Amino acid sequence: MSQGTVSADHPPTPGTQPGPEADRVRRLGRIRHLHTLGPSGTNLEAAAHQWLRARGLAGAGTVRLHPSLEGALETVPRTGEHALVACAVYPQLHTLVFGNLQTCRMVDSFVAPTYEMVLAAAPGMPREPRTVATHPAPAGLAPQEAAVLPAASNSQAALDCAEGTAEGCVTTIVAARAHGLDVVRNFGPVPMVFTVHQVHGEGE
Fold it and tell me: What gap in Å lies between CA 166 and CA 122, rounded to an integer?
């Protein structure tokens, strides 16, 4: 085994510094609470619950939804038990990572399908909506001729559409159904890389 590596069979000698992988595993083992983008019905919410289930924490862990990941980072307790869930196409992922090196670090990632992504409209609205609410990440799914209205999340886009702010929206099938929207076009699920960012504990 090369110098500086750590294995389960050969724990580090007392007084030595654990290697990067051992530190990552230690950090992962502390996480119990995930924070991500809401309102309910986002792909990130589903990914957070999937991550907890995969680690056997479905009954012990929690998922809290926030209007933005940046806002969540400001309020998350600094205990080492909390983490943000983002994804590879989040427009400001680079800022979340490099702009907060003293606050949080990426400790895990996984690939999973999103919910079915859809173009939806409120009942009675045109089948080719002229204005479309969408989060910046899936904005490419909006009709080219439509005016795009930015939304904070896929679920918020559905809510904006249901409230009449836009004629249509790009959202998840779950959010579209929750707000009584008609599906104009179904793009299906999209394979996605989701990322987990542990918020440092005090003194780390």
Answer: 9
Neighbour tally for 137: CB within 10 Å: 18
Structure tokens belonging to residue 163: 């409230």
**Sole residue written with tokens 């104009």:** 184
Token pair recorded at residue 105: 């670090």
Q: What gap in Å lies between CA 115 and CA 85, rounded to an integer?
A: 16
Mean pLDDT, contiguous 10-residue spans, the chain (204 residues): 42 60 89 96 97 94 96 94 97 95 95 98 92 97 97 97 97 97 98 97 76
The DSSP code sequence of 81-117 is: SEEEEEETT-TTHHHHHHTTTTTEEEEEEEEEEPSPE
CB atoms within 10 A of CB 13: 6
